[in-house]
Amino acid sequence: MTGATQKDSFTEQYWQDPHAAFAEARRTCPVQEVDFEGGRSWLVTRYDEVKAGLTDERLAKDWRSSLPAEERASAPPGLPAPMSHMLTSLDPPEHTRLRSLVTQAFTARRIATLRPRVESLAEELLAELPQDEPVDLVARFAIVLPMVVISELLGVPEIDREEFARLSTVLIDECPDDELARASAQMATYLEGLVAAKRAAPDDALLSALISASDEGDRLSDLEIVAMAMLLLMAGHETTAVFITNSVRALVDDDSARARLADPAKVPSLVEELLRWLSPALNASLRFATEDVEIGGVKIARGESVTLSTGAANRDPDRYPDPDVLDPDRDTGGHVAFGHGIHRCLGAALVRLEGEVALEALFRRHPNLRVVADPSELTYRRSVHVHAPRTLPVVLTPKAS
Predict the structure, then answer these.
(1) Sequence-separated (6 or more) residues with CB below 8 Å from residue 123
(2) pTM of this structure
(3) What does the alpha-carbon distance between residue 396 and residue 291 come to, in Å, rounded to a whole number?
(4) CB-based burial label for 11 (10 Å; 0-12, 13-18, 19+)
(5) How far is 346 from 175, CA to CA, in rounded Å?
(6) Closest to 236 in 3D by CA, of 314, 144, 324
(7) Contact 25, 32 (CB under 8 A)
(8) How does pLDDT run across 211-227, given as a tens digit for each residue?
(9) Residue 176 burial by CB count (10 A; 0-12/13-18/19+): exposed, middle or buried?
(10) pLDDT tens-digit series, residues 96-128
């Protein structure tokens, strides 16, 4: 069953309610062709197949790996140059070499040392928000907190962060190829200049460390440094911003789950269940079959692309009973919100930390926070990877009636 008749109805539903679309796909055609705006791909929606696919060496991240060896050198350009050199577009040994240079900066122990700064920043941002009138929580808090944290970690000047947030949204959301190329080129041009400035006047941030590693003989080209910085800036705030936004929407309507934020011992398990339930990154980035592969009884031909849906896997009832219920007491072990295997999200510990701090600080200060937009009035980002409202108008302290 190829699922060719399913693809149009799936994508129409996906843009509105991805989890409902995933549920229908798992039930009727768990491995099917879908037609996202970037092209056709095989969508895999059951937990067992998704998790296996995340470590299947026959599913490459570099699309050129699916071509015959004699055709790879002459293959036409795919993604813009910096994006094609990101970790998410590479396989070993290139992926192994590049990832090893940044892994130490994102260990759980290293990230834990950032907690005081993240807590201080969250308090500063919340103190600046108006009360008793609507405020967009996305623009004023959910995006700003992780953007400042990742920028400080990398060493990106404060004056440039808002423009980076705008460009990264373009690069992650669905957009025409020419717009994607322009945004990529703009970000790359800035980062090339920043790399040159850091080489001349290094600091103690991660970007300078990458430059130093390259200069000391680790064979990291300037293009690879720019690509790494671009990926870390994008992934370092987008996933967390989406997670904070959607978590607020969930907790506003769930008194029991929200009450757990008052007990520091219960916050990590709540955040872990929110990660499973929301899956901030709904789908892993594309993989390409390097040979004919059978997944879930469906034959996928060499060269075809595969989308492994982590969001669908995390709500597979064969893995998690009553998966559509937000249950902080459940065993969330094995969820794939951050992927699995060698491409597992480098910033998982940072997302967890920022999520814990942001939600605890927000609801401690504003326990009566309410969303003032009707759900039907919210407009959502059109993206294969994330599903979140573009804005989230809230009143932090409702006026007394």
Answers:
(1) 361
(2) 0.90
(3) 54
(4) middle
(5) 26
(6) 144
(7) yes
(8) 887 766 566 788 888 88
(9) exposed
(10) 988 988 888 888 898 999 999 999 999 999 999
